[in-house]
């Protein structure tokens, strides 16, 4: 697991994956800018005030408030968009590090979109649960890592495995190597906990789990050899 994490950490800053990150961030900012314009326009249209200076003040406050609100959405929106590009990320890793192996199969769009939304929902839910545990002194940080370690490890590993296996086979493999996958999830949770760097979490997690799936596959194959 450690070697997979270290390889992923070095690989996410290499040109092919760096280009995917900039693409992801660009789409994210464009989408949020459109939402910001929509919110600002909706408030200006729906709220009519008797004085021009009040309308100006409201527009200014709405714009500033929307910027702060959308700032909190950068990470989850980036996660959704990166989720839609997961197959592109996995293909880069498989091509560069495992050229002799058969390439994985990209998930159909009908499966990729729900997968991306599901991943984002799980991240949000995990953080909400961890935040609720802030009320219990001494365990909030532990809860953050345990919850996110399990959820993130599960989702990203099953994605990497499903490029080569059926969903049932991917789940079975994840359960068979539950401890290793969980430790990988803890590494992802640690990445998620670092501000700014957490924007790279979907790319780091995808790369690491592609490597981890390959290593576990090779290990299993050696065990069954006569």
How would you describe the oligomerization state of the chains in this entry? single chain
What is the number of helical segments per DSSP (H or I, 4+ residues)? 9
Query: Helix/strand-derived class?
Result: mainly alpha
Most strands sheet? none
As a percent range, the share of helical residues equals over 70%
Given the C-alpha coordinates, what overall shape results? globular
Distance between the termini: 26 Å
Low-confidence stretches: none
Rounded Rg: 21 Å
Please report the total strand number as a whole number.
0
Q: How do the SSEs run, as a string of H and E?
A: HHHHHHHHH
Strand content: under 5%
State mean pLDDT (0 to 100 scale). Answer: 78
Features of the shown structure:
226 residues; mainly alpha; 9 helices; 0% strand; globular
What does this structure look like?
With 226 residues, the protein is mainly α. Helix content is 81%, strand content 0%. It has nine helices and no strands. Helix 3 crosses helix 5, helix 4 (86-97) packs across helix 9 and helix 6 crosses helix 8 (178-192).
Provide the fold topology.
Blueprint: H1 2-11, H2 15-46, H3 52-84, H4 86-97, H5 109-132, H6 140-162, H7 167-176, H8 178-192, H9 201-224
Brief overview:
Helix content is 81%, strand content 0%. With 226 residues, it is mostly helical.
């Amino acid at each position: 697991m450690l070697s997979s994490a270290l390889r992923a950490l070095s690989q996410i800053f290499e040109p092919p994956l760096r280009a995917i990150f900039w693409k992801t961030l660009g789409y994210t900012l464009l989408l949020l800018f459109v939402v910001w314009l929509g919110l600002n326009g909706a408030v200006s249209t729906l709220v009519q005030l008797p004085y021009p200076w009040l309308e100006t003040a409201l527009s200014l406050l709405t714009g500033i408030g929307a910027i702060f609100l959308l700032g909190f959405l950068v990470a989850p929106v980036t996660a959704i968009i990166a989720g839609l590009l997961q197959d592109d990320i996995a293909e880069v890793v498989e091509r560069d590090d495992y050229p002799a192996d058969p390439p994985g199969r990209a998930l159909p769009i009908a499966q990729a979109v729900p997968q991306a939304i599901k991943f984002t929902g799980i991240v949000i839910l995990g953080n909400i649960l961890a935040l609720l545990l802030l009320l219990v002194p001494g365990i909030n940080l532990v809860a953050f890592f345990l919850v996110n370690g399990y959820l993130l490890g599960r989702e990203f590993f099953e994605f990497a495995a499903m490029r080569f296996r059926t969903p049932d086979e991917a789940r079975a493999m994840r359960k068979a190597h539950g401890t290793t996958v969980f430790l990988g999830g803890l590494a992802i949770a640690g990445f998620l906990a670092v501000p700014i760097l957490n924007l790279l979490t979907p790319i780091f997690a995808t790369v690491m789990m592609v490597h981890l799936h390959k290593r576990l596959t090779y290990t299993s194959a050696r065990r069954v050899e006569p």
